[in-house]
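Weekly sync notes, structure subgroup
Attendees: PM, AL, DS (notes)

Item 1: joint prediction request from the bench team. They want all two components modeled as one assembly rather than separately. Inputs as received:
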Amino acid sequence: MTKRNGGGPATAESMASKQRDISVSEFFLKNRHLLGFDSPRRALLTAVKEAVDNSLDACEEGGILPEIAVELEQIAESRFRVMVTDNGPGIVKNQIPKIFAKLLYGSKFHRLRMSRGQQGIGISAAGMYGQLTTGAATRILSRIKHAKTAHSLAVQIDTRQNKPAILSDTEQDWLPTFQAVNAEGQPEGEPVISKHGTSVSIEMEAAYLRGKQSVDEFVKQCAIVNPHLTLHYSLKLTAKPEAGNRGKENLKPETGNLKLRAEGGLSDISASGLKFQVSGFSSQVSSVTYVRAVKEMPKIPDEILPHPHGVELGMLMQMLKDTESRTVRSALSGDFSRVSAQTALDICVRAGIEPKTNPTRIAHHESEALYKAIQDTKLMRPPTDCLSPIGEAQILAGLQKELKADFFTAVTREPAVYRGNPFQIEIGLAYARPAENEGLGNEEPVRVMRFANRVPLLYQPGACAMTKAVTGVNWKSYGLSQPKDALPLGPVVILVHMASVWVPFTSESKDAIASYGEIIDELTLGLQECGRRLSVFLHKRHRELEAARKRSYIELYIPHLALGLKDILKLTGKEEDKIVGNLKKMLEKTHLDV
Amino acid sequence: MTKRNGGGPATAESMASKQRDISVSEFFLKNRHLLGFDSPRRALLTAVKEAVDNSLDACEEGGILPEIAVELEQIAESRFRVMVTDNGPGIVKNQIPKIFAKLLYGSKFHRLRMSRGQQGIGISAAGMYGQLTTGAATRILSRIKHAKTAHSLAVQIDTRQNKPAILSDTEQDWLPTFQAVNAEGQPEGEPVISKHGTSVSIEMEAAYLRGKQSVDEFVKQCAIVNPHLTLHYSLKLTAKPEAGNRGKENLKPETGNLKLRAEGGLSDISASGLKFQVSGFSSQVSSVTYVRAVKEMPKIPDEILPHPHGVELGMLMQMLKDTESRTVRSALSGDFSRVSAQTALDICVRAGIEPKTNPTRIAHHESEALYKAIQDTKLMRPPTDCLSPIGEAQILAGLQKELKADFFTAVTREPAVYRGNPFQIEIGLAYARPAENEGLGNEEPVRVMRFANRVPLLYQPGACAMTKAVTGVNWKSYGLSQPKDALPLGPVVILVHMASVWVPFTSESKDAIASYGEIIDELTLGLQECGRRLSVFLHKRHRELEAARKRSYIELYIPHLALGLKDILKLTGKEEDKIVGNLKKMLEKTHLDV
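Output from the run, pasted for the record:
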């Protein structure tokens, strides 16, 4: 059964004969957990996330207030169709195959600009996973402005070559259409029809489960941090077959079962105002619309040039080789941010290089001198208007919508820089009432909600710099208990957001942020600021509780005191009542310091 | 300073014009933290790890008892030369450029066989990082058996195209030579000269720091789990310049400073028997040899074929398309493990497919039927003789060498399977004496040492299934205290090893293992077994301590009892002493149950 190694140990020659190229698609197919497709549950979330990221980016780049529909349909026990439709600018036809069926292709990688996507992998990876698990193609409908029809394509990846294969290519009369639902999940108002947009549909092996890492949670958090977004979410589940058939059989439709329906429904029904809209005996549909809270687009972030202090020697050499400028001086001032013509001249002089030298003819030792001169030159920090933070007001509003809590605070830090990339940290913190919020309690670890460029991060908290920073803060000094090297305990929700022109994720699935020192530092400062405010609140609350306790203690004795006075002074019952009343009034007026 | 977006929002057409291919080298250059090169300290470790992995794999494949030299030399304040030399079979010349300067190239990806490397990225990534930070090329010396000279090449990656560029290519009279050192770091015995082997040298921005994530620790742990390896490790540090110059200036040699020397030296000097061998005023050299403990090679693992139950539908379709077999039946029995000719026939019949059908002409619905038939067919589990575990005896020996502890145990689980890939979990556990082991204590989280295919994993514990499994076990029931959702506390070291034909790492840096359910389950069972044994030990120890406490309590009263008896019975002092003696003897004989 095993494939033997051909008798005896390998030689340099026999090993050489086995060396081969590995296509990037093959690599990620075998390592699909790197892309977030290691389990059917996570696969469903990752596919939705990649499609929604792309839709939001496209709408925002096109200056369009985003309206997005996410539709999940269970088509067999362990198979779903994921469909995401947007009102974005659409995609020109010849780009569709590469965008949806080629890894490492895109417009966002070679620029420094804050966006959700950045790698050119995500949506093609989702399609590749669908293809792997169901053999089905990715289907795309897209209509651009002023076009007469929409393009309808079915594409797959040729994984051996990482190239798209087009299975069908037709034109179709299609307009993206969005139907809002009310709190009962019933259609409300007329459908909204857009004249342009894109819809992508992928069939894949997947599993729907509620909870903290569910699509429901992703969609909800997405709406919180993107208040300009209208998002329609619908879920069509088919009842599960008998337990005995699980995992092997396709779905056998069953007669209706209300209990099953409730179990399969959206999470947190009361909070989100969802109701089920049962469309038959064997399936259940639930839908919700998150209507946009603001009608202004967030500021469209600017693209920036690399900052010289964030560029390594090897990268500098590459940039000088590739530049379109004719002199070193103009390359420095033209290809980098924060380098004026004068500064460029200073750098050349400091490096001992003639400023008019052709940059493509620079020798290794000259690059080294230039690199050193750049490091020794004081430069303004990178521009930070390229970032679009959520803002303290919006973070507070988001938390208040989600939680029953007695204390809310938020901090948006000033922008900072890691490896030449501007970034900005925001923290929100709420101290909730344990009885009114599921999963929160005095003995429970705090809940950390993580976001990067307005995208919720639901997986791999343990790998994330955000978790690391929360764990690293000394919360005992702010009034929370905290086991060693662990999250603090208490009914607390902490929201953390990082905005950057380049978010350093720890893997291609973009679930966790790498622990660069500068990022950890900024996170820590923001958390400490919130911690100090929490500590003031907890201290005050403690004092108030203590005062209330004292007062109730004294109140206990007032009737006895009145009774004693009545005996001594021979008072009537009416006079006694008056004394009790007066004493209580006095007590209320008195400031009880603890 | 910012690069504006060209006025106004983007259109489908303007966005299309920005779409581009991204080369895999560019991708990883920008995401170098994915490869383990996010900080100078980690970069040093990652480079050593990748080179040592390759050397060990090459030696074992070639049937050669490995002898490896790791040399780190600080050549400027933040710059090191990393050189790793082995006595492996060597590399044929035309393969050298691709192996060392092209990402996604190698012999280990397209096979299922237990080895350290698997991705075809590691060593080229280290070279690419060196090139990025210093502009220097990777230098390789390699000599194969029966060759008259060695090849000496200098290569770099053309990152735009992910292709090697050869900067120099000469022949050289070179033989890999290894010099052992004694406990004082002094040369001992004659140098060992091999007739074949490879040496790779990379200059890079790096930092040397001692501690749990250091090269020292990696090298030490590597020697523990590879007892057939002789490993020479030498570190040459140059004294640091004044604090004021740090980070900007190259190193200025200083006059000798013993304190600095001690600070810069290898960690854990007393434990590893290291001494410094000072070679001048401005630098320090420390070296150590870990001599092999066994002279037998570990079993060379077999390569296996994919197991049908681990192959997804899409992969099955691809395999049928690519097979060299002429019939579906022979493709099933020839390309998969655990499928006999009879089983292949049964599968075809069950799927309703003529067994002699040409596999390349199978339609989509036929593949689906075949896939379903395979799932419904009972098959033997994948072969497991392809795994080479460390073994319980070796794990115990390794832990005993490292720790002063009162209790050791080890478990090697039976092989199991995830996604069709055989794997095997091993656990070692030691309950140490806190006073005699640094970093361990009753209030400290336990220390977890992680290994995959005999490679120590030092980074990203929070992302790793191994940490998750340790945290998930209820250690309170085994006698350790444990904060919620956190590691247990106590002077305990837990060693975890996963051996597999394909280790699912959470990122290309290969520091943490993905949380597949089957892997978590096996880890948990192994940990629980060790936990139960620990609990027996702790219970017994508790009983003994309790007995000792009772005894000392009773002993306290014996003299008073004797004095009373003396008074009552009018005994002499000698008789009193005898009574005390007798009572003590009785006490010692008595079994004191708690």
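Discussion: Chain A touches chain B through 108 residues (CB under 8 Å).
Action: AL to compare against the crosslinking data before next sync.
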